[in-house]
Amino acid sequence: MIEFKGVHKAYDNGIKALKDVSILINKGEFVFIVGASGAGKSTFLKLMMREEVPSAGEVIVNGYKLSKLKRREIPYLRRSMGIVFQDFRLINNMTVFDNVAFAMRVIGKSGSDIRKRVPYILGLVGLQNKVRSFPKELSGGEQQRVGLARALVNNPSIIIADEPTGNIDPELSYEIVELLTEINRRGTTVIMVTHEHDLVRLFHHRVIEIREGCVVSDRLSDRKVKKPTREADAVDAAGIFPTFREGGSI
Question: What pTM was computed for the model?
């Protein structure tokens, strides 16, 4: 559960990034956060991840009141989140396997856990044949799927996707959001920041629009636009997720 209660955020330079934002996102929801550049979307995410604190109001994530969170508790909050970035942020001299395994190593998972978990997650995102490849050998869409696998590997309760389709083609953008949608169907809360309104209209998810720091709209997408028809690019999520076990965790 994520809740913003009367949140204001002003920076030292005088910019008022958020103004009286009150939002409740329930467990298991998929929410698009949309708005123009400078609207306050990035600040919204930074507050949620406790990179920033509100000037007024309260942010609550998974039971943590973030304004009262001690510095030593911040890593435990962030372990409940998986982050997907626009610029992929892969380690170029590591293989696909090691890029994903890195997220497990930093929290002290055992070698045997890593050897079991990483191939499973790579299979979920359709990269089981790219385990030994390096990022430079992958397409943009494949690199973003590595980023998604890395975000998933520690089984977070929340996925935060910050403009995850900004550096890939429109057809591949649909594929990434379809993957996120399938993850959401399995119970993971997904929050995706984007400026791509056409992409948002492809999916029947909640849409929160931020404009000049204020929430101006909170609605369900109308899903009026047809999805891409190129079979090679618009991948069916049922084909991408062949190895989910009934009742198992992501």
Answer: 0.85
